[in-house]
Design brief:
Structural class: alpha/beta
Family: Belongs to the 'GDSL' lipolytic enzyme family.
GO molecular function, one term: hydrolase activity, acting on ester bonds
Protein name: Alpha-L-fucosidase
Pfam family, one: Lipase_GDSL
Keywords: Glycoprotein, Hydrolase, Signal
Length: about 375
């Protein structure tokens, strides 16, 4: 048995205003690579090479991971199928239980000219409205589509999940000072609030918002911005990146609290992903991991095994020399997969922590209408 498998019984709450109940007919997800189940790969014709997907899907699945993401484990906990990517046309996608609009590299703010993803939060929200419109058109024509598409009331009863903002903060460090990044946070969150308002005005009532993780602990950022040891904290993470992430998270939490009061008929849950991930990195050995920040799949060897010029699974010629990334023998020993994203084992741990309810506002621990037996 995988040493990270947790056989947990999680307490969940009944349907109360401002609470989560884990009993939704469908889930609609918005975000970046932390929850992208294939949108960027399908949308821009990108290609993910093996060993991506090796642990669970036995091949690349459109996820920037060796296996499942946090959202996959959360869907499993809700007894719902994995979400299909909105832009994936092949593989007979079934959207009956929801749709995933998240795309790797996406930002909350409109994308810059050189952005990895053109599918910013505003675009993802627009895609949702297009999706909903087409669903209602098709459902009105014939019930034969019922097997593949959500019912109309699924849109008001469904859970709207968000995990986005990481790229707005981390990406800004390449062109802005720390003070400029901090000053831009209210603008980023105003854009996020505008998207939430559009969804609310259209009938969405259940919102689940992840904050951003400790960006300074990603090998990509340590390699680029942490070459001076004085820039690192006690965990070996880049201090400024984590400070910026913290300031973003404080304001995001304040926004979630504002929305909880403003939308009294809605359920708004804020989840402290930063705290969960930071605790994992600080106490990695306690949770059965051996490498907290180094990449399992990468190039360059210890301590980071990361080279920005060659992504996991790639071979490139640099300065006349051909280099190929390598993959670790046991992915369950690593928190980080490729220098930017987490391993399936880490994602599983994070999901199990989310589902304790202790890291949420409002918390949903100690509320028990039924026991939810996690299958992972």
């Amino acid at each position: 048995m995988n040493k990270h498998v947790l056989l947990l019984f999680i307490f969940c709450i009944p349907h109360l205003t401002n609470g989560i109940d884990f009993n939704y007919p469908a889930v609609f997800n918005f975000g970046d690579s932390n929850s992208d189940t294939g949108d960027l790969v399908a949308g821009v014709g990108d290609k993910l090479e093996s060993p991506n997907g090796q642990t669970y899907f036995k091949g690349p699945s459109g996820r920037f991971c060796d296996g499942r993401l946090i959202i996959d484990f959360l869907m499993d906990a809700m007894d719902l199928p994995f979400l299909n990517a909105y832009l994936e046309a092949l593989g007979v996608p079934n959207f009956r239980k929801g749709c995933n609009f998240a795309a790797a590299g996406s930002t909350i703010l409109p994308p810059s000219v050189n952005a990895v993803s053109p599918f910013s939060f505003g675009i993802q929200v627009a895609q949702f409205f297009r999706f909903k419109s087409r669903v209602l058109q098709l459902q009105a024509k014939s019930r034969r589509f019922n097997k593949y598409l959500p019912d109309e009331d699924y849109f008001s009863q469904g859970l709207y999940m968000f995990d986005i903002g990481q790229n707005d903060i981390a990406g800004a460090f390449y062109s802005k000072s720390f003070d400029q990044i901090v000053a831009s946070i209210p603008l980023v969150l105003a854009e996020f609030e505008a998207g939430i308002k559009k969804l609310y005005d259209d009938g969405a009532r259940n919102f689940w918002i992840h904050n951003t993780g400790p960006l300074g602990c990603l090998a990509q950022n340590i390699a680029k911005f942490g070459t001076d040891p004085s820039k690192l904290d006690s965990l070996g993470c880049v201090s400024t990146h984590n400070q910026a992430a913290n300031l973003f998270n404080i304001q995001l939490h304040a926004l979630a609290t504002k929305l909880q009061g403003q939308y009294s008929d809605a359920n708004v849950t804020h989840v402290d992903i930063f705290k969960i991930k930071s605790n994992l990195i600080a106490n990695y050995s306690k949770y059965g991991f051996e490498q907290p920040t180094g990449a399992c799949c990468g190039y360059g060897g210890p301590p980071l095994n990361y080279n920005s010029q060659v992504a996991c699974g790639q071979t490139k010629t640099i300065n006349g020399t051909s280099i190929t990334t390598t993959v670790c023998n046991d992915t369950t020993e690593y928190v980080n997969w490729d220098g930017i994203h987490y391993t399936e084992a880490a994602n599983q741990h994070i999901a199990s922590q989310i589902l304790t309810g202790k890291f949420s506002d409002p918390p949903f621990a100690d509320k028990m209408p039924f026991l939810l037996n996690l299958k992972f």
